[in-house]
Amino acid sequence: MANISITRRCLRHCSYCFARHELAQDLATDMLPETYEAALGFLERSGFTEARLLGGEPTEHPLFCEYIDRARKRGFRIFVFSGGLISQPALEYMSALPMDSFSLLLNTTTQSNDLENLGSQQRQVCRTLGAKVTLGVNICSPNQDTTYLFNWMDEYGLCPRIRVGIANPIWGGNNEFFQLRGPRVVPIFERLVTIGTERGVNVYFDCGFTPCMFSRDFVDSHSDMFVLPEIEPEASTLQTTNSYDLVGHDQKQQTSLVEAIGIRCNPVVDILPEGDCIACYALSRFRRFPLPLGGSRNDLVRSFNDELLPMLPMGIHRECAYCDYLARGLCDGGCRARRALRLRPNALIPLDKEPAAERHHIHDNN
């Protein structure tokens, strides 16, 4: 699924922010209506029925409510990625939207690291939107406290699903990220699944995870999370879903392949406010292409893969070269941005150090 980043505005200052490099760019702050309409057309040509809006903080866009209306009129279901700092008018607007056409992923506070009022505002979002909210958390430390997720879910009647992400690095950037010291078990991931199972909550994982982060016993006893179904070779290249595709409720967009943990690192295709497309935010300093007037997401995925795959090491660790999981097809080497970190600083070529602001499809409305 492609995502539409409608703004670079954001009031949060997360040290691990995967969009940190892009938010600092002196490019378009907000996506213009004509660019947004072109992005919706791109989604239609790609066969998607869900429009996923992110930023920055998408609710900060001056035309946020209008953009949702535009997408709904074209038949899209709306899924918003938010950090929870939402104005009251935008919150009231989303509260009035029908459940079957709107939902929101709330990227929750890490509590100990964020200001107290952020947690309070996020609770207000949960209180107002209720079951429209799916909670998400980015794991930055193996000792991170996540128990509040389940408490919020019970208290506010939220969607019984939790998206778990890992703070990945920005290739060529300077964000903080979860440090991996070789292949080893990270107990917090298994603990979240165990608690979720006990409480009837579906805990699922975003991109960047590998089987070696879990114990052998866990991998063996959760084959539905790790075993890759047999598919046609062409489908595995072009029809794969990314973990972003499993966040919302657009079941029609899930192909016969539901990716297992360990092979969830494919170009997402994020459309930036000025109309540029990147493989993902972690690789935002690599190649970017203008939003095409024709063609679909699969065409961009193929283009990104053609340039990325020949340049990257086999995996995120040296040990990946003789890993049983990789040999069995249960892992493809992990996050590509992490794999790129193993290269010399200038080895990932071509590398767009700064976007070309003078391109005709970029609009500066700062």
Please, could you describe this protein's structure?
- Helix content is 30%, strand content 12%.
- It has one domain (3-340): Alpha-Beta Barrel (TIM Barrel).
- The protein is of the alpha/beta class and 366 residues long.
Keywords:
single chain; 366 residues; alpha/beta; TIM Barrel; 10-stranded mixed sheet; 13 helices; 12% strand; globular
Give the oligomer, counting copies of the same chain as homo and different chains as hetero: single chain
Low-confidence stretches: 231-257, 350-366
List the secondary-structure elements in sequence, H or E: EHHEHEHEHEHEHEHHHEEEHHH
Can you summarize the main beta sheet?
A: 10 strands, mixed
The beta-strand count equals 10
User: What gyration radius follows from the Cα positions, in whole Å?
Assistant: 19 Å
What's the total helix number?
13
The pLDDT mean sits at: 84
What best-fitting shape do the alpha-carbon axes yield?
A: globular
- What would CATH call the class? Alpha Beta
What is the count of distinct domains? 1
DSSP helix fraction: 25-40%
Report, as a whole number of angstroms, the end-to-end distance. 29 Å
The CATH topology corresponds to: TIM Barrel
- Using the 3D structure, state the CATH architecture: Alpha-Beta Barrel
- Look at the helices and sheets and give the structural class: alpha/beta
**Strand percent estimate:** 5-15%
CATH H-level homologous superfamily name: Aldolase class I
Instruction: Give, in spatial order, the strands making up the sheet with the most strands.
Output: 7-6-5-4-3-2-1-8-9-10
What's the structural blueprint in terms of helices and strands?
Layout (H helix, E strand, L loop, with lengths): L2 E3 L14 H4 L9 H13 L4 E5 L9 H10 L3 E6 L5 H9 L5 E6 L8 H14 L3 E7 L7 H10 L4 E6 L20 H12 L3 E4 L10 H6 L1 H4 L6 H6 L31 E2 L4 E3 L9 E3 L6 H12 L15 H4 L8 H5 L26
Parallel strand pairs: 1-2, 1-8, 2-3, 3-4, 4-5, 5-6, 6-7
Antiparallel strand pairs: 8-9, 9-10
